Amino acid sequence: MAQPHLWYLVLFLFMEPRASRENDAPVMVTGILGESAILPTEIPNGYKLENINWASRTSVALVQPEGQSVKIITTHQNYRDRLNVPPNTYNLKISPLKMEDAGSYRADINLQNPTTSTTFTVTKNYTLHVYRRLAPPKITLTFVASENNTCNITLTCFMEEKGEAVKYQWTPLGEQAVESNGKSSLFIFQRPEDAPINYICTAINPVTNNSQSKLVQYPCAGMPMSSRSLWFILVPVLVLVPSAGILFYLQHKKKKDADSPSTSKVMALKDLPLSENQLYDEISMPKAIVSNPPKEEEALNTIYYTVQKPQKIKNSCSSATKLLGTSTNDSVI
Q1: 74 and 160, same domain (yes or no)
Q2: For every one of its 333 residues, what pLDDT tens digit does the chain have, with 9 covering 90 and above?
Q3: Are 47 and 99 members of one domain?
Q4: Residue 221 falls within a domain, yes or no?
Q5: Is the same domain home to 287 and 207?
Q6: 149 with 58, same domain?
Q7: Where do the coiled-coil regions begin and end (predicted)?
Q8: Shared-domain flag, residues 26 and 119
Q9: Do 101 and 168 belong to one domain?
Q10: CATH code where residue 67 lies
């Protein structure tokens, strides 16, 4: 049979806290930007606190009890003058909160058993969330007139200053509500005979909420045209406008071509070489008949070309070329 003192030893091992232990899941703490957040320590009764070492991404502070008060040694400048520890609870209070305060925290709580004078460490983990206090959301309204005088309406609710974990609720709910990209869209339908309805959008985050309302009374009045009818107008316009532009361009080009001279002088008369065997042909372009044109204009509207006969020319001396055939070897057609 085991000695009695062995049973006391086994019982003592189960009752004595371990030298170091850590909480399984982090404690979730929420706070509002510019206000305060408290990280609870929950010191067990019957144990003497030696100190608490607080840390986050960097070291935060060292807390030591001194009689009836508490000594706080801030170890990071970001938390200077923003920490407070009540002597009765030793909870860490951070105020005023900044957005960068959000994140994981760790408290190493060093305790002493007064009976055995043994020391051990209890480690607690925290997750701090910092949220903005929500302002009233904004509501925008868009609508499209459809067939049968039904008005398709979309109400969009959003926050001008986007925050973390913001959700939206509509009252009344309407046909369908969809949330995406930090906004909530409510789809509703109204007819001219329907009574006006006041829709309320409520923005919610874990620490606060705020609402905005919008009175909807058939906004499609004076716009009976459906989207299908609108397409019947847009499609012909999209086809006719480019066609009219092309037609105008062709007419302008045709007019420009018509204004240019109908005949061109291929070679000036004075540049023609003198030869006995020259044949002149006059080609006139179709043009409006002008009575009694001046001789100078007639000469400008005449095209001359030379046909060289395949025969040996004995005499190259010849008189100057004349218009309308004055030489015996020149022919004018």
Answers
A1: no
A2: 445 444 433 343 344 444 556 666 899 999 999 999 999 999 988 899 999 999 999 999 999 998 889 999 999 999 999 999 999 899 999 999 999 999 999 999 999 998 888 999 999 999 999 999 999 999 999 999 887 888 999 999 999 987 788 999 999 987 789 998 889 999 999 999 999 999 999 999 999 999 999 999 988 876 555 444 555 556 566 767 777 778 877 877 777 666 655 444 444 444 445 444 454 455 555 544 444 544 444 445 555 545 555 554 444 434 433 433 433 333 333
A3: yes
A4: no
A5: no
A6: no
A7: none
A8: yes
A9: no
A10: 2.60.40.10
Q: How would you label 86-115 residue by residue, b for 16+ Cβ within 10 Å and e otherwise? A: eeeebbbebeebeeebbeebebbbbbeeee
Asked if the structure places residue 108 within a domain, the reply is: yes
Residues 177 and 233 placed together within one structural domain of the fold: no
pTM of the model: 0.55
Residues 87, 144, single domain; the answer is no
